[in-house]
Design goal:
With about 350 residues, this protein is α/β, with parallel strands linked by helices. It is built from 17 helices and 10 strands. The termini are close together.
């Protein structure tokens, strides 16, 4: 959007950011990513990764001008009126590179982080279906995966996929991810992806060990002063689950993490995090589980009037535009929202 770019560049390249920061209300801007680019995550898609130099540039710029915090303590500060311009770095899922690559980076720049952990990978045995899917795409064409999927399930996935491609004319990988995420039975999907993964020589325990933090790694991050939050047990879109299954994922996920961690676990991240990925039941269960706040993946700053269980986050990967983050961080986009103009997304 032209206006979005114009406002952001004007604020970023001039002292106008200082005026916006002064006029805007107290705010917490939460950055959200997944991985720092590392050998352990080389098969994951580019939109899940950010290079160290890119992330360091963003954090250095922010830390010179604003106050770094962790998600839960930042939200408490905003509520108490003790913070002004706060930013927090968060990473989802709990990947091993958070320890091997992100921790040294944050120590260099003096910024803490919040890591949202799935409880099943922390036990060292199970990974979410998406990672097996991405692993397969490193070894097979997506059409091969799709054809085999169609052979192993009673649902005519090939016909569905063909119709979607004709109608939408968009990327086949995107279509398969969307279909597997939203349009098929989750138990059936997991069963079939597991079969294809095993046929291709996949070892789930080895993949989990290579890709995810273990309990010792999570503990090391906690000892370094990071916040460890919840991200369900197995990272499914909880809106697709009934209430007992959501309870198992959200409440049970926090119970499992508290059994493995030394306290903490005050904030929660909805898997995938879009408005259609969670519902009112999810929000209620996050509160019931004992989380003090929960975050989405919709962009925007958070103020004292924000919903504690629908907090905004700015998703970042290697193509992140610092001037857009800067415009949100200094409060320019917050001020424009007051007059009905939302440029965050």
């Amino acid at each position: 959007m032209f206006l979005r770019e114009l406002v952001a560049r004007l604020v970023y390249h001039t002292p106008l950011w200082r005026l916006c920061d002064l006029l805007a209300p107290r705010r917490l801007v939460i950055l959200a990513g997944h991985c720092v680019d590392a050998p352990s995550n080389d098969f994951l898609p580019p939109d899940m990764k950010i290079r160290e130099e890119t992330l360091e540039g963003v954090l250095v710029w922010l830390n010179r001008r604003f106050q770094a915090t962790r998600v839960a303590e930042g939200w408490k500060a905003i509520q108490a009126g003790s913070g002004k311009s706060l930013f927090a770095l968060s990473m989802d899922d709990g990947y091993r590179d958070n320890l091997t690559h992100l921790l040294p980076l944050t120590e260099r720049v003096g910024v803490p982080a919040t890591i949202y952990l799935e409880s099943r990978p922390l036990e060292g045995e199970k990974v979410n279906w998406t990672h097996k899917f991405f692993w397969l795409l490193e070894r097979m064409e997506v059409t091969q995966v799709g054809h085999r999927y169609g052979e192993l399930t009673t649902i005519e996935q090939d016909d569905i996929l063909t119709n979607q491609i004709v109608a939408a004319g968009i990327d086949v990988v995107y279509l398969w991810k969307k279909m597997l995420k939203y349009e098929v039975d989750q138990e059936e999907r997991d069963r079939v992806i597991d079969l294809i993964f095993t046929e291709a020589g996949g070892d789930e325990v080895a993949l989990c060990a290579d890709l995810y933090l273990d309990k010792a790694g999570a503990g090391a991050l906690q000892e370094a002063g990071w916040e460890l939050g919840g991200h369900t047990r197995s990272h499914d879109a909880v809106s697709a689950l009934d209430e007992p299954a959501q309870r198992h994922e959200i409440v049970g996920g926090r119970e499992a993490l508290l059994a493995d961690l030394d306290g903490g676990c005050e904030s929660f991240a909805y898997p995938f995090g879009r408005r259609w990925d969670f519902d009112d039941t999810s929000v209620s269960l996050a509160r019931e589980a004992g989380y003090e706040c929960a975050v989405t993946t919709h962009a925007g700053a958070n103020t004292s009037s924000s919903d504690a269980y629908r907090l905004n986050r700015w998703m970042i990967e290697d193509s992140v535009k610092l001037h857009l983050v800067a415009a949100e961080m200094c409060g320019a986009f917050t001020l424009l929202r007051k007059v009905g103009l939302d440029l965050s997304e």
